[in-house]
Structures
1.
Amino acid sequence: MNTDTPRPPGPSAPALLLLYAALGLAPLPLAALQGGAGRGFWRELSSGLAMIAFAMLLAQFLLSGRFRRVSGRVGIDVTMRFHQLAAWGVFAFLLVHPLLYAVPALGDGPGAALSRLSGMFAAPGLRTGLVAWLVLIALMAMGAWRDRLPFRYEAWRLGHGTGAALIAILGAHHALAAGPYGADPVLAGFWKVLAGIALASLAHVYLVKPMLQRRSPWRVTVNEPVAERTWRVVVEPVRGPAFDFQAGQFAWLNLGHSSFSLVEHPFSMSSAPADRPRVEFTIKQNGDFTDRIGEVPVGTTAWLDGPHGAFTLAGRDATRLVLIGGGVGFAPVVGILRALRAERWPHPVDVLYGNRAATQILYRDELEAIARELDLRLHLVLSEPPAGWSGVTGVLDREVVETCLRARDGHVHPDALYFVCGPAPMMDAVEAALSGLGVRDRNIVSEHFSYR
Ligand SMILES: Cc1cc2nc3c(=O)[nH]c(=O)nc-3n(C[C@H](O)[C@H](O)[C@H](O)COP(=O)(O)OP(=O)(O)OC[C@H]3O[C@@H](n4cnc5c(N)ncnc54)[C@H](O)[C@@H]3O)c2cc1C
């Protein structure tokens, strides 16, 4: 995990944003080149917004977090937040798209506008557009209330993928058959290519990748408890190439199902690349799948999709590190620490590790051994410490973070590189504390374990 190692591949955040904006806006000049606008302000506005939104929606398929070439460099957090935010933009534009057609009729009263709307919704030629519009509303509702819906995550994911594919197909049909500019061969070609790429990306994730994975099966070689409700799961390749990754990255892990199964979950590698071909995960019981992780027998077949994520030191400029983890969010930090140890990292490292109870601390003996070998200060923080606790008492808030950071030489070093991973409230508190202490966003690398 040398800083000379290149960053995970992919465009930078500004480049990604620019590409996305360019793709979203591309239909406008293509439509304008056709001339013949002038169907009235509201109709043109409605078509313009719908075209932008549909292009954005099709580009969303590549922002699913499963394409390293797209999200490798910016990381999964930025990719998923962007995916979610952009989805709201798409939704707003497409929601008003049919409504705007009815605005001119408002001059004749709300009844006239309503009757124009109901006429449109009943028109056979607009049926595919209407169904796509309704599916989009359902998809957004499913996204917004995901954690409150009574489905398993896998059912949600299947619904999300199927709904998105339906919208792509029906929306493309609507744009080509009913869109005022859809007859133009260049714009029609644009929609066909973009919709084709979107659907191919789904086929890649759900069919091609699982097919390729079958060439490289893995096997569980260790599954043992390492802390309260937390398990250490080690997998090794049965055949095929050793898994190449950078410390701190994660993989989608499928244990004991077909490689085509939707039952796969993201977990950070808590081993170092130097430990390959062995790859280790530290998994906390936290729901349907993870609650039964301890029951997975040694010998179970595993499939790995990865590595993903940019929670890694590779390619970053750092001569001073601060690693801050809470709960099982410490798993990727352990991977980074093991890599630092393997490389005999010569620079100062401060580690702040928060938990509720001492029984939750992961790999404590090993952490203390690493602290002795490197220029590393380990701050174990507990909110409910046992009697005689010699570490820090409290939670990772501004006061605790500042005290730990100043413990080395009395200073906070805003130019250090800060890695933060843990439960969302902890991450918010730590990021606010760091920002209050003068650390700039670009010096903070963070990863959430939930896309909420
Ligand atoms: C980048 C990343 C790295 C992670 N690393 C670790 C780790 O090293 N150790 C660890 O214990 N946990 C890690 N997690 C969290 C872990 O993925 C979830 O705890 C696990 O998927 C929950 O599944 P479940 O069926 O047990 O729980 P459920 O009750 O089904 O789900 C709980 C929540 O977990 C999320 N989730 C569930 N399934 C998936 C899925 N297939 N894909 C994405 N999110 C899902 C959803 O937000 C869901 O609401 C990581 C998560 C992410 C995003």
2.
Amino acid sequence: MLWGVVHTKGGVGKTTTSLYLALAAHRRGVPVRLVDADPQASATMWASAAVRAGHPLPFAVEPYSGAPRAKSGELILIDTPPGQADVLQEVLDCVDVAIVPTAASPMDLERVWPTLEVTSHLPTVVLLTQINTRARLVAELRELFEEQGVPVAENFIRHKEAFKQAWGTTPADLAGYGEVYDEISEALKWH
Ligand SMILES: Nc1ncnc2c1ncn2[C@@H]1O[C@H](COP(=O)(O)OP(=O)(O)OP(=O)(O)O)[C@@H](O)[C@H]1O
Ligand SMILES: [Mg+2]
């Protein structure tokens, strides 16, 4: 199965989400690879830094070279670049689901709609991330998306400094991504 992590805006948490979801899958015993379709190669650099630090990531991070094929029972996470690169369209043509991480600021939310247009032909789930607000506001945001027919993950990711510190390491704490992984895999009837 292939999961694409996409958002046309930069810096919303695509690479962080791809990496943590891959780690969550690995910790649940699912064979997983992370394919890096971003020419900035952030996920690849993260993996190299983890090797240099003596704690390599427990799954492969590979460059994108055409639509990957998952083996039976295998999960492939694809991290994508911001903007409207051709590779984004290619990725959206091969994945089973698009995961769209978005922060809750008005600007981030404004920018999420064009992304949802390009994913409209496939199952899509919005993941609220970098949240440092009250639960009531999160519920309102969820309603806003659901009124437009866009599912939002029940579980969301809080804004935490720990995510910045985690760069280049193999984080011990999944910091909410374990629940997100379980929710998405259950929704897709996957494992
Ligand atoms: N939940 C969070 N709380 C705090 N900081 C976060 C969180 N998620 C991501 N970050 C930080 O936000 C920055 C951008 O995250 P990330 O690189 O994952 O975004 P991106 O969408 O992949 O960016 P790009 O579009 O440049 O590829 C990083 O410094 C990351 O550590
Ligand atoms: Mg990135």
